[in-house]
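Now for today's protein:

——
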Amino acid sequence: MIERIDESLTDFINGGALSRRQLLKLMGLGSVGVALAACNVGSSSSSAKSDTITVDLELETPTLNGLQQNAQYIDWILDQVQEKLYTWNDSLNVVPSLATDFPKVIDDLTQEITIKPGIKFHNGDALTADHVAATLNAAKSNPASTWGGHLALFKNAVAVNDTTIRVSFISPFGIFIDKVAAIFVMHKDYIDRKDAIMGTGPYMFDTRQVGTSLTLKANNNYRNGPPAVPKIVFRFVGESGARLVNLIRGDSTVLPTPNYSDIVTLQKSPNIRVAEAPCPYDWHILPNSGKPPFNDVRVRQAFAYCIDRAQIRDAVFAGHALIGQGPIGPGFLGYDSSYSPYTAAPQPDKAKQLLQAAGISAGSKIEFDYISVADGYSKDAAVIIQSNAAAVGFKMNLVLVDIGELVNRAIAENFGILAFFTLDGMAYGRDPDAQLFITSDVNPANFFGFHYPEEDAAINQARAASTVDARVAAWQAGNKIIVDKVGQIQPVYPKFVVAYNKALSLPLAQLPLNRLQLYLAKLS
């Protein structure tokens, strides 16, 4: 089943999470700035028909406010209704969306952004700089915002006139544009609302049946033309088996993130197409580097080398994953597929040598608590890791907890290893800042005892860098420090999978599998 990681956990650990963008666009189902592709879905059910796209989501979002939540089950909806100042093009480069051009640099701490004139919200109000400034300021300072930690260097935004916003920074903030490319621009009167959505996009909020569904209708006044499909229905179907059956029999059109174990069944269905791609993830296995036994880097290294990554890939993710090497995985700037400090198979001899070098004699048992959420992929992987660890001398006590207890353990630093898994997309930008930030002293919530000034320096250098190349070099340096000193462990990089009805008639060549990574949010 999809692991239900509450948004508060990732917000607590790193100040927020990451999002997914126009997957409906990428599949030809919907777009921001592009009309929805027409489809002709035949079905025995009235829910999947040519004038409707039906998407089954596992969870219903508790809020419709994109500043308060930034996870898959809300972004699927908001991506059709609201837009952002900037977005990503087919080459994974940031390009203007609501903005006319890239920010005008006034000085190292000041930029100005101009928005396109004539854009209107669905209620007829003009999109003005006041709305943009209100959105950015709330993203930074609103206590309910999930964005605060990611905008640490952003100071404030001020409307200069109807179309110009001046943004100020506390210190140079080179990744600001990547962050605002992931923030939905809101109507200022909706900043604190949870019950309705107001946007400028190709679809409008229509109706909501709490606990059942939410319906969007076409914005026939959309500046790039009305979408071809008049309606998108998001249904909240908690049971994975029901979501699977709905797609196979034609009651739904799109199934986001099916269970990995169901992929074979979907691939055998004559009416279903399955697409997958490497993508940003958020799987963190975090040793407590400040307390025994993991305060010795050689013990952390031994644990990292003993893990059977191939077994986790095959048994937990049914083969739909890449071997993990460090915090920066596929989809993030700085990912290097040739960087491979770990093998797919475990290296028990190397692990035992490291333990011996740490003064731990053969036959000794190194006991610690491994704290994992109680369901989903994290738990399944932990069972495998427990067996791997025992083979080299670790006595790993697997403690399965709910989210609240996991957070409590983190605050009290009462753990040997803390583990949680979600599948991230570009919720907070394409940069890996959030991945590296977790175990750095730049993060005030670093409860993991991992203190390496070189990592902090790399993060600060990347944040301030004015060029992508300079940022990538800094991120890669920070990534290598975390891998070498084992501040985090990522056994595999799970792939993103989406299944949909073949009646959409979209050639595989048009599915940008190398880009799906941009548009995912958490498997929550």
Notes: The first strand starts at residue 52 and ends at 57.
